[in-house]
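Quick start: load a record and inspect it. Here is non-specific serine/threonine protein kinase:
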Amino acid sequence: MRRGLVLADRYELDQPLRRGGTGEVWRAYDRLLDRRLAVRFILVDEAGSELISRFRQEARSAAWLEHPGVPTVHDLGEHHDEVRGPSLYLVTQYIDGLTLDHLIDAHGTLPVSWAAFITAQVCGVLSVAHQRPLMHRDLKPGNLMLCGDGSVKVLDFGITAGLAPGDVRRTATGQDAPLTPGYTAPEQLYGTPCPQSDLYSLGCVTYELLSGQEVFPAATPYEMMRRHEDEVPMSLRELLPDIPAALDALVLQMLAKRPADRPADADEVCERVLRFVTDLEPLPGSVDIVPPPARSARLYAGVLARIPATGNTSISPEVPSLPATLEEVKLPSQEEVAQGRAEAADLASSGRFTQAAELLSDMAEPALLSLGDDDLEVLGLRLDLASVLHQSGEHRRAIPAYRVAAVGLAERHGPDDDRVLHCREQTAVCLAQVGHAHEAIRLLEKLLTDVSGREPYDDLILRVRGHIGRLWLTAGRPAEGRQELSDLLADIRSVHGDDHAQVPGLVQLLDDPHL
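Running the structure step on this input writes:
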């Protein structure tokens, strides 16, 4: 990329901000609306198909996350550079501020009130994101920016891969993921992140803001990861006796090894940290503002944290409101439902999952009224809806959608139908995604019992065993998880050799010296 390059006849590159192995970030100007923007590139030839696919999907997810604490996403496009080849680019709001790593370098430690204020604002963003659930997965001082007015912006929601080669690691699931050793929750190393993983990372950041040092300093990334997995962090009060005991306890709880031992959600962290937000003094060279009264600071952080309370936080699928009388409802024919499903499939195949989900959701109730709950098209529509919700990352809505689909399919085709078993498997997968690992394991073990009559090396059985093993690694029984995965790898190799799709991920996971 070069200065002066114009994308889409609109976005003019001005100054490089960051470069990495497979991507770079530029400051740019919007010629149409006369404003500064940021443009993030990812190089197609160097990134790989999985990274490209995830970049597209998570760019769409970031665009969904409308929040004052997150830079607005404006555009997503493609560009071919004569030197570096094809690339994707994401256009976002340009944020003028200081990242927290630079803030720590400048000030060493921050006053308790500022550290608490920053933490509360980040919790406000996470509270909204986790409702989807959209996880950041790479919270660290370099991805958090303090602006001149004291507000905090959370950068790079899930789209940091490619900008720092050392921060990207192939997880146990076989997918590249952004990981920064000093801020990564233990369960993320096994490819099973959950909303509480972000709370762990935020705990690392808060610890550093208060102490001026990382939770577990180490000479190498692997040593740092080992310490995060195995060692108990030093109390902040041992380093700085003036730190309030309740704040120290909160940070240590955020740094618990098991997700279940951390605070329940970002709302809880915000409520507990707000009590430490008192009068804020200016931070010279960083935030030169008139110190707001404590009440204003609390209100600002509190508003950010309470944004979800004004929206729909239910995990139930959205049902469109129906007209007052059935005569006003346009009841679709079976052919029209089939056409709608085909249109939704086309949308999903091009990555437009939100549109696909809305189309199917709007059609679901009228189709049910028209054709009945045992009609094949209605049953297929329900399964399609659950699938696109899952693909779009809306796991909370996908959970009840899969359950409804499973019930209908079981009544029509029997409980052993492959589609019923698929719904049960995906329900558990979605539960794990939203942090309910033990409930997911319970459902998967029940599923494994119910399909015990199948061949022992059936693909479904092998997948379910893999899910269970990985979940036990991060749900309090790592030895049992490792044994399950070791047995699974041996069984797969005895039948399929090393050609089975699960083998590379299992080998890498079991060879991890820190497991």
